[in-house]
Amino acid sequence: MKGRSCLRFALVAGALVAGALVAGAVAAGTACAQTMPGPMAMMDGGRMMDGMLGPYTMMQDASGTAWQPASTPMQGMMWGTGGWSGMVHGQIDAVFDHQSGPRGGTEAFSESMLMVMAQHAAGPGTLTLKAMGSLDPAMGPRGYPLLLQTGETADGRAPLVDRQHPHNLLMELAGTYAVPIAPRTALFVYLGYPGEPALGPATFMHRFSGQDDPAAPITHHWLDSTHITFGVATAGLVHGPVKIEASAFNGREPDQHRWGFQRFGIDSWSGRITINPARDWSFQVSYGHLHSPEQLAAAVNQNRLTASATYNRAFAGGNWQTTLAWGRNRDHPGNTLNGVLLESAVALGHLTLFARAETVQKDDLTPTGAIARVGEATLGAVRDFPVARHLAIGLGMQAALNRVPAGMAAGYGSETPTGIMPFLRLKIR
Ligand SMILES: [Cu+2]
To answer: Residue 37 phi/psi, 5° resolution?
Structure first.
């Protein structure tokens, strides 16, 4: 009964997001048609609106204050009215998920994301407001089966293992203000509750190379898990191709109550240097101190170091992006654990092919706390079918091959357990 009512709830929630997506697309399409000459006409040597944080193309802006290469294509669509201009993008996926073996599972779930961005000139600078939400909490606090995934909790008592936690209803409510101080230089502040501190590469669902895969990377908590932080303030400087920024934020990961606001706090810090030396490249190095990130290990603090490179280019009439990222978590007290991710996606017309390979050391897959090096390789494809000017239905499939040490093979039913996720999605484009 419980499972059935959960599914019914998820379907209703899914229908609501789909409705919001369609309404958003229609409203934005109307605003676009009424007040804008159209996206193509707005382009001026490849530039549309300004970047959120300074004098660069807004294509560079990914999640939080993170950058991806400037040649990354536009996601979602533009709107403009009464001096405001902005973007809407989002999608909702219905996923059938099968993960093999005794620690796997078979479930259907829906995940979604809707982001609205608005920009306006204000005084000497530019004000940008961002709101992003998801109906992921409707899938239930235990999230979905994902072999080798760890991090956060569903009930405040047991850690989530071999499952991906759902994201929050409110993922980002943030504002930035950027002021130019020289032709190539700007200062900015970013405030979010929730928001994303300057730590790690662009979050997986906001970087072109990762956004089509319905599954989260198993290195999520090594690279980009701080993307929903209930309290963050970032200040930084953009100078030409370089961005230098520092954040003070709430180090605690969201708890199992994912529908509401969580307690505000500022107890952690991070710093990041990003360089986009050419249109096709973005590099970042970042370091952060996370105070008590996991509620079930409240006495453990973590220092996280990440480095990543992203390459993006036009390819065969479409676009191709690849990200290589490394993250190291040093727990105090505890272990020092490394994770590496290599991820690529190529969009050719309405077809997108994507792949991801990861290797990561984890000490939370078994109750003994032994360190295990595990890995996964994923391949997938999604074919979009345009159904309206700004909406497409996509039909996709993802398959994963995992690798666990011989000592853990009994628990997983094999040294190479597998996962498969056929999915259907509705996307603003
Ligand atoms: Cu996340």
So the answer is: -75, 0
